[in-house]
Amino acid sequence: MDDNKTVDQVKTFTQEELDQVVKERVARERAKYSDYDDLKTKAGKFDEIEEANKSELEKLTETNQKLQSQIDNFNKANTLREAQDKVAAETGLPLSVVKTLSGKNVDELTQSAKTILDFNKNQGSSYPRVKNSSSSKSRPVSKENEFLDWLNSNLK
Predict the structure, then answer these.
(1) How many CB atoms lie within 10 A of CB 103?
(2) What is the distance between the alpha carbons of residues 120 and 93, in angstroms, rounded to a whole number?
(3) Is the distance from CB of 133 to CB of 117 less than 8 angstroms?
(4) CA torsion sign, 34 to 36 to 39 to 41?
(5) What pLDDT was estimated at residue 33?
(6) pTM for the model
(7) CB 92 within 8 A of CB 73
(8) Residue 80: how many other CB atoms lie within 10 Å
């Protein structure tokens, strides 16, 4: 008899009752996701804004890199100029000569300057010695006139 009690306790549904239960369940599930379309639209707009911001960020990053490169170049040029000024003051070479030396820092420039100074010492004077000639008597004596006289005599 216990078996009959369990069978009697099982509830049976008609098709209409079952349809009603399924409709209620589907309605509850649809209610959970009723704002899905709104969320999907908002997510799309967010993605667009994020992409636009990303483009702006990339532009700003590129601009920043260009400006940093310019700053680095200016700093290198300024460092070289300061080194050239220092070497010119220390060695007595004209700045125009120091600017032609190879080297990127004070030590390298100083070494190049010393090489030139040592070479100049071994060569003696770099200017030609010019004798007083009769043509120079009409002009005042000066290094420029002596050089012109020497040049004219050697070009003939």
Answers:
(1) 17
(2) 11
(3) no
(4) negative
(5) 83
(6) 0.43
(7) no
(8) 16
